[in-house]
Amino acid sequence: MTEVNWAGTHAYRATRIHRPSTVEEVREIVARAPRIRVLGSRHSFSDVADSAELVTLEGLPADVVVDRGRMTVSVGAGVKYGELAEALNGEGLALHNLASLPHISVAGAIATATHGSGDANGNLATAVAGLQLVTSDGELIDVARGDPDFEGLVVGLGALGAVVRISVAIEPSYEIRQRVFERLAWDALFEHFDAIAATGYSVSVFTRWGEDVEQVWIKSRVTDAPEEVREELFGAVAATVDRHPIIGLDPVNCTPQLGIPGLWSDRLPHFRVGFTPSKGDEIQSEYFVPRPQAVAAIEAMRGLGDRLEPLLLVSEIRTMAADRLWMSPQYGQDTAAFHFTWKREPEAVLRALADVEAVLRPFGARPHWGKVFVARASDIAPLYERLGDFVGLMERLDPREAFRNAWLEERVLARR
Q1: pLDDT, mean of residues 255-283
Q2: Element (H, E) at 283
Q3: Phi-psi region of 71 (alpha: psi -120 to 50; beta: other; left: phi over 0)
């Protein structure tokens, strides 16, 4: 087999891929495989999902089940967020947030603590109410919020078993409008960062670390109150046409802007379902720093501007709320995220990442598990106080180490 990720920038080393259509088939495949991992929607840029054998859950039934009493929805693990959103829209329901693109699988995004944005919004994994997991011996187990070890199981990094079904919290449908502001001065961002991040339900700052901040995207919930239309944001000017986060690209693939209200699912992502998100041919990295350190970290990153700009398509700064999920980068702390969308120049990107990580290390930066980073487990392990408990969970649920891979050994387990 030959499989590559969504951007074509990572090739999987696996020699076999399984495509089951039932949970029973998943149980049989997992129980007999010496080493196996679950392949999601191929939106990871790291080796997190690689193994000698892979299993894709795209063939499992979606089987979307809404429980209005508990205000949850349960779905097959192969379902993508765009597909789930469409089903929820038919019921007048919604999720609390979405990532930048709706093309990613629900289970894969949750396993790596993928996120949207917003001061009060936890990452996507914080919405999980329950999950169904196939362990390495083929056993099927169900866990729910409040159960022992639940907070360790949710962001599982694919290391605990194959999640085949997942239940997440829902809420009544709502509308979002988004507006873009251009050319924000760095001094204005430094002085007003907290105010800017609080301006909308979800806020994204886009830059290439050059002479100014190129764009600020503000997504606001629509209420009964009339919108207060602002022409500027601390000196940045309101865009009069739709924009793409990457300067120079056609915004046709982006969700509508200019304050036009739309369903939550049509505004919270930056990119529309059915269209190529971002640029496509790219490499991605991301790091999370404690929210109180955000401005200092931005100021420190500015010193790398000349080094980074030639390699960058765009960089994005966002905020997320704290959670209690053991392997979440937001565990125990509100965070600010520094996302990098790189040109497809892998060797140069790795050199640049060494510089980025050196600058962000004093701030205790935690990398996104599904993106490219150079730090090893010995650097990352001290940043996760529940890592020992997580390893214990791995040993209990996967005693034959079927779900372990080289990436886990090198990046998470701190054992050589």
Answers
A1: 84
A2: strand 283-290
A3: left
Closest CA to 231 of 267, 172, 182: 182
Of 266, 384, 285, 402, residue with least CA distance to 338: 285
Three-state SS at 159: coil
- What is the pLDDT at residue 416? 41
230 φψ region: left (φ > 0), alpha (ψ -120 to 50), beta (else): beta
* Tally of CB atoms within 10 A around 390: 23
Q: What is the pLDDT of residues 224-258, one digit of tens each?
A: 888 888 899 999 999 999 999 999 899 998 999 99
Residue 225 tokens, joined: 């109150």
3-class SS of residue 253? helix
**Of the candidates 201, 205, 180, which has an alpha carbon nearest to the alpha carbon of residue 192?**
205
Q: Which residues contact 357 (CB under 8 A, 6 or more apart)?
A: 287, 365, 367, 373, 374, 375
E-strand spans in 92-212?
93-94, 128-134, 140-144, 162-169, 171-172, 175-184, 202-207
Residue 75: count of CB within 10 angstroms of its CB: 25
398 close to 159: Cβ distance less than 8 angstroms:
yes
How do residues 341-361 score in pLDDT, each as one tens digit?
999 899 999 999 999 999 999
Beta bridge partners of residue 175, listed in sequence order: 263
Q: Say how far apart CA 51 and CA 168 lie, in whole Å.
A: 28
Q: Cα 73 to the chain's mean position, in Å?
A: 20
Q: Tokens representing 102?
A: 């709706």
Tell me the two tokens of residue 209.
């670390």
Average pLDDT, integer, range 180-196:
98
Handedness of CA 289, 292, 298, 301 (dihedral sign): negative
Helix axes 346-360, 294-302, angle to 10 degrees: 130
On whether the CB atoms of residues 41 and 104 are closer than 8 A, the answer is yes
CB 56 within 8 A of CB 18: yes
Length of the chain: 416
Whole-angstrom distance, CA of residue 306 vs CA of residue 85: 40
Q: Kindly state the average pLDDT of the residues 96-107.
A: 85
Asked if residue 201 lies in contact with residue 292, where contact means CB atoms within 8 angstroms, the answer is no
Whether 270 contacts 217, CB under 8 Å: yes
